[in-house]
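Quick review question:
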């Protein structure tokens, strides 16, 4: 295990009856980073987190967190980690501060230290000091999730596991949680993030592993994964839908590999040279008298990366 790795899994396997949840999964997460774990439902993401957090024993392979083996040194691992699950673990009748003090006492912090830690978390990371005395039932969804995140940090963990931390939140609530996560990583915490929101991984993760059927099928920075999914694309929205096919033939790539959305009057096609392709497309449309409502160059999205990688894996297994 490299001294730069906060998490290491090599050949990890876990079976539930006939189902192979982890099938030789390999994962390395560098200290002080956010590492995203993406995959379809049932891919093995939550099983991975539960194994790393010592909540589930794996069958085979090497698994280490913060330098400690999760089987032989489970107690040492637990002292160094925090876990935010998919469902909140808060008492809604207590105030935010009372919840944090309760969790601190459950972690065997003394009364005075529990109060200090609650105040520190409410003020330093989460901006909840002004609302800390309100009952949690009066909190917004975003505030509740940030408080839940604060509770996972009572012991100041080296490694924090976030299992779909913003599920069900509106865009404002997700943004609030994102800012809190960035603040934590800035202070040195390592974060392993599972999420169904690919924008979330794009916003937060330094590196991403795509998991499918219990294995990592791709690993890299968001930009590296986008590059693997294909070339940059040009999107054109024409004003007159009747001229969509004519506009398609004028694109630099022609009809090859182009996607056409007739309801939205939109064409999307791959390009090799961003600048030249954009200029060429604008000139060709103007010369033909086709009015475009919008023309834009873009990179593949993580949604496209996800679909590309998991679909390819499904086809490989089916074959």
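Suggested answer, residue by residue:
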């Amino acid at each position: 295990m490299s001294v730069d790795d906060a998490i290491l899994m090599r050949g990890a396997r876990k079976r539930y009856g006939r189902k192979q949840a982890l099938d030789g999964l390999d994962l390395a997460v560098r200290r002080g980073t956010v590492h995203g774990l993406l995959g379809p439902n049932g891919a093995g993401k939550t099983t991975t987190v539960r194994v790393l957090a010592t909540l589930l024993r794996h069958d085979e392979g090497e698994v280490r967190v913060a330098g400690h083996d999760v089987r032989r040194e489970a107690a040492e691992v637990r002292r160094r980690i925090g876990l935010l699950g998919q469902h909140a673990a808060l008492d809604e009748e207590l105030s935010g501060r009372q919840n944090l003090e309760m969790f601190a006492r459950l972690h065997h912090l003394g009364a005075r230290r529990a109060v200090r830690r609650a105040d520190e978390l409410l003020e330093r990371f989460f901006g909840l000091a002004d609302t800390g005395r309100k009952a949690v039932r009066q909190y917004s969804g975003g505030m509740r999730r940030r408080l839940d995140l604060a509770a996972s940090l009572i012991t100041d963990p080296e490694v924090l596991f976030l299992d779909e931390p913003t599920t069900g939140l509106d865009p404002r609530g997700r943004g609030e949680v994102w800012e809190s996560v960035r603040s934590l990583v800035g202070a040195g915490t390592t974060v392993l993030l599972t999420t169904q929101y690919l924008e979330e991984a794009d916003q937060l993760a330094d590196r991403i592993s795509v998991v499918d059927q219990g294995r990592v099928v791709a690993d890299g920075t968001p930009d590296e994964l986008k590059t693997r999914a294909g070339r940059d694309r040009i999107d054109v929205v024409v004003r007159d839908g009747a001229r969509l096919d004519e506009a398609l033939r004028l694109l630099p790539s022609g009809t090859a590999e182009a996607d056409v959305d007739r309801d939205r009057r939109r064409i999307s096609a791959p390009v090799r040279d961003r600048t030249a392709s954009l200029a060429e497309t604008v000139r060709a449309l103007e010369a033909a008298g086709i009015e475009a409502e919008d023309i834009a160059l873009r990179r593949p999205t993580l949604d496209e990366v996800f679909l590309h990688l998991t679909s390819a894996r499904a086809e490989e297994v089916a074959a």
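Why it works: Residues 231-299 form a domain with the Alpha-Beta Plaits fold (CATH 3.30.70.100). The two ends are 36 Å apart (CA to CA).
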